[in-house]
Structure formats: structure tokens, C-alpha cells
Amino acid sequence: MSQAVYLDYNATARVRPEAAAAVAHALEVGGNPSSVHAAGRAARALVEQAREAVAAMIAAPVSTVIFTSGGTEANALAIESAVAAGARRLIVSAIEHDSVRETARAQGVAVETLPVTRDGIADLDWLRARLRAWDPADGQPFVALMLANNETGVIQPVAEAAELVRAAGGWLHVDAVQAAGKMPIDSRALGADTLSVSAHKIGGPQGVGALTFGPRATMSRRQHGGGQERGRRGGTENVLGISGFGAAASIPVSPDRNSAWRDAAAARLKSVGAVIMGEAAPRLANTLCVATPELASDLQVMGLDLARVMVSAGSACSSGKVKASPVLQAMGQGDLAGCAIRVSGGWDTTEGDWNRFVEAWFEVHGRHAARRRPVGANA
Ligand code: PLP
Asked: The domain spanning residue 45 has which CATH number?
């Protein structure tokens, strides 16, 4: 039987050997980073070394990196801090991850949606006009705009948005969870006031992430406790996860070979009517979001899974259910939202993996096309 093909890196990346080795090493070191004895100091050294690596990955000052339990918590820390600092109205882009959208909605303040174009790019004219008309009674404007979308891979004009937000005296939160490891990130040059990343999207372990904050962001305490993370997040640090995160973050971003293989696969699918989402926009090199009219996402995902090729339908959600993608709906592609799949490669993906995907996909497509063909029609 042929080997399984994993093309779902945007859901979670395969763990890098360097990260696995760092986790194993941290297990051996043991120790609580808050203890003053030798074992504690050794654990503290691992945490601080990892903090330096994560800070370097996003070009942030080391002292501004707060470790969290993942991208979800990092996003929540940013949003809750903005609300605690007085934000009464949050602007959240239509394509944000649920961890941003749902956290914003749960704050008990007004939430507005920053629309996107058909290519999935944030509409900055809308943002400019909205910020110009801002009512000071709504407090400091808060805007959440991700760096790259998890479903389409479309890269957002964050630096331009930051200029608008800054001119309005606002706070820009950038979810860089999908962009990290796939493109260079300079959080300060981008103009982010807060920026979140997650280890498991870059080949580190699951359950660890980080938030960096700039001088204009007033961070609040998310978790009370023993004063860890400079008092911003109590609780004994996840030394294993943080060590693995640091190791993965230390691996430089190199040109992604997936890009050419992805485009070749896309061209073949397009030849039978598939539509590439965000094709005209700048995109992450590893991501293909492709919709096939009249071929439901779940049929594609399950058919490919039977052929031992793993992809996903829209963003993976915790229930494992396949639901029509709100991201594609926001792009005005609602008709195709139920027919889209996301194929995403990573650091150990090969050209052969993409070819296997294409072959398996054509089998699924052919099977369903045959079923749709009216009785008596010519083959
Ligand atoms: N933000 C984006 C864009 C994501 O794709 C994800 C995960 O899918 C998250 C946040 C959540 O990160 P985590 O799984 O580390 O909580």
C-alpha cells in the first residue's frame, strides 16, 4: 500500500526533528523555571533561550514575548487587554480565525466586520472611512487583521492597515499564526501593536504559542498566579512545549518549494473547472484553496482520505465537522463555500505528494462526475 500523504500543514505541521529533540532534552532537564536551584535554573535557561528564538522569528524585543497555551490564547490576551484598556468597539476582519472572531464577540462590546474583496483581501478603503468617522465615545479603535489567512493563504496588507490604525490612535492586532514559518515577519515594521504566533503551525508541539506587544499596547493579566511571564500569565511554564517552539522558531524561513508544485496541481484541477480561491492575491506558497462546483467538500475530503491523502475542508474545527466556510462566504464565494478544500504543504512535503493528491483527486472527481451524468448520456 502506498504511503499516506499529509497535505494539511495549515491545520498542524509535522513536528520538526529539531523540535522533537528539544522537547526530549527538556524532559531530561526537568526542573521548575521558578526554582532557584540548579535544576530550576536549567529549566529557566531553556525557556529564555526559546523566548529569544521566538522573538527573533518575529523581530520583536525579547522582553515583549509572552508565552501562552497557543494561538487561541494569544489572540484572546490581545483582545481582552484592548477591552480592559477601554476599547468599546472592535473592528474584526471578516476572515479572522474563530479564536479572534468568537473572543471579540464574547467581550460584551460592539463588534464590526471589516469586509474583504472577492480575492480575500481586507478592504482598506472601508477601514479608512470607518476610522475617520470614529466616535471617541467608543474608546481607542481596535482592529484585528491577520497576516495570512488559514484557508486561502491570502496575505493581508497589514502594514498599510497599521498606518491607518496608527493615524486614528488605534490598536492593531495581527494574528500571524499561519504566516509564521512560511514568510519572514517583522512585527515592528508591520506596525502591529500585538501579534500572535503558535508553535504547532511551524513544526513545534501543540499547546504553546506567544504574543508580542508594542509600546502602545497596555497588556492586562490573563491568568493570576505565581507571577510567571512577568506577571501577565501565571502558571508554571510549559517548558517542554516552549523548548520545542524555540527550536522550531530557530529554523530560518527559506524559499518554499511547495509554491511551484502547488501551482502545477492547481493548473490541472482548473482544467476541469475547479476554481482557485484568492488566486489573484499574494498568497502563502504552501496553500491551495480550491472549489469544484457541484462536488461537496466532504465528498472530496473523504474520498481523498480513502486514497490516503489528507487535506481539509475549510478550517478544521474542534468538532471535526465540515461546515461551509465563513471565509469564502465573506469573499462573496458563498456558492462555492461548500465545495472547497484546503490543501497545504510543509517542510517535508515532496513533489510526489502533490502529484499523489492530484491523481487521487481526479479519481474522486471522475467517480462523482460519472454519478452526475444523466442516464443514457454518452461517456
Ligand atoms: N489563528 C489562526 C489563523 C489559525 O489558523 C489557528 C489555528 O488553526 C489559530 C489562530 C489557533 O491557534 P492554536 O491552535 O495554537 O490555538
From this structure: 3.40.640.10
Give the H or E element holding residue 110.
strand 110-114
- In the DSSP assignment, the letter for residue 92 is E
Q: Which residue from 92, 100, 101, 150 has its CB within 8 A of the most atoms of ligand 1, so it is best to mutate? A: 150
Ranges of residues in the chain whose predicted pLDDT is under 50 = 315-319, 376-379
Q: For ligand 1, which residues put their CB under 6 angstroms from it?
A: 70-72, 75, 97, 99, 146, 150, 175, 177-178, 198, 200, 209
Q: Looking at beta carbons, which pairs linking 126-131 to residues 24 or more positions away fall under 8 Å?
A: 127/91, 127/161, 127/164, 127/165, 128/164, 130/91, 131/164, 131/165, 131/167, 131/168, 131/170
Does 95 map to a domain?
Answer: yes
Nearest to 351 by CA among 255, 256, 258: 258
Q: Does residue 320 belong to any structural domain of this protein?
A: yes
The CATH number given to whatever domain includes residue 342 is: 3.90.1150.10
Question: Same domain for 243 and 360?
Answer: no
pTM as predicted: 0.95
Query: What is the position in ligand 1's atom list of the atom closest to the CA of 99?
Result: 10
- Is there a single domain that holds both residue 280 and residue 213? no
239 with 368, same domain: the answer is no
Question: What digits encode the pLDDT tens for the residues 250-309?
Answer: 999 999 999 999 999 999 999 999 999 999 999 999 999 999 999 999 999 999 999 999
> Is residue 235 a contact partner of residue 31, using CB atoms and an 8 Å limit?
no
Element (H, E) at 46: helix 38-57
Number of domains into which the chain is organized: 2
Spacing, Cα 71 to ligand 1 middle (Å)? 5
* Residue 160, CA distances (Å) to 145, 166, 191, 361 in order: 11, 10, 9, 38
Q: Please give the single-letter amino acid code of residue 155.
A: I
Which residues have a catalytic role annotated? 317
Question: Of the residues 211, 226, 249, which one is the last residue of a structural domain?
Answer: 249
Within a domain: 77:
yes
- Establish if 378 belongs to a structural domain: no
- Ligand 1 pocket test: which of 10, 68, 99 has the largest number of ligand atoms within 8 Å of its C-beta? 99
- Based on the domain organization, do 159 and 40 belong to the same domain? yes
The pLDDT, as a whole number, for residue 316 is 44
Q: What range does the domain containing 215 cover?
A: 17-249
